[in-house]
Amino acid sequence: DTATDSVITIRLRSDTANSSVTFQDVSTNTVLDAMDIATSTGAVIDFSTANTKLATLQAANYVVKDNGIPSADTTYTPGGDYDYTVNLLHDTEMRTDIYNVNYTVHHDYTDITKDHDAVETLQVTRTYYWDKVTNAEVPATATMANYAVAGNINVHPSAPVYAITSGAVDVTSLNTSTGALQLKTVNRDTATNWLTDKTSANLAAIDLSQNANTGTGQTTTITASDTINYYRNAELRTDTYNINYNVNHIYKGDTTNPN
Fold first, then answer.
1. Which helix (H) or strand (E) is 194 found in, with range?
2. S-S: 103 plus which of 93, 120, 134, 146, CB 3.0-4.6 Å?
């Protein structure tokens, strides 16, 4: 037998693996991106692409709530957990719209010479928060804790609120949540000889929420009117009569006929 030598060549290479980074939009509960990062055993994971993506999102007004990407060099070792998540919030800012309301009350009398108009003026503000990611108002129904204000993750927006800042405060009711504005009846003639058709009712309401807001802190002038009618009160009068009643007493057979 003749012996034959065989040569076997073995080439070894490191195993490949993936790390991952997920970018989560907490405000809308959606995944913005999920990227795999190729790496290998014993190699330092390269997060440069993920960090570039994060910088892009921050430039688009996302605020980091918590960042799972390691800040120090991380070496891939089989069996480890190398899946990371970055949670992001929408940044917001507070804005204010102004409503200048001119409300004309027509005081109409059955005696038209007494007719006159009175104008109630007031200013109402609406304060709300603007989503800088979506470029829209933060909905009143949103989970406000999932938004940041001016880059601060510990400060959160609130639902829109209306407030009277000047004008006829004492004669106005305002729903601070819905923007329903109503002027109370103010009878301009309190004389007892006139009756009004609005002794307890309110004047026609204004729904400020129907005035579209553009998020620019706009000022809007609103005009409205209603009428109070006055009717003459029928006066109750009393006449006094003094009655003198003469009784004649007549006696038969008596010529004196005393009265």
1. strand 194-196
2. 120
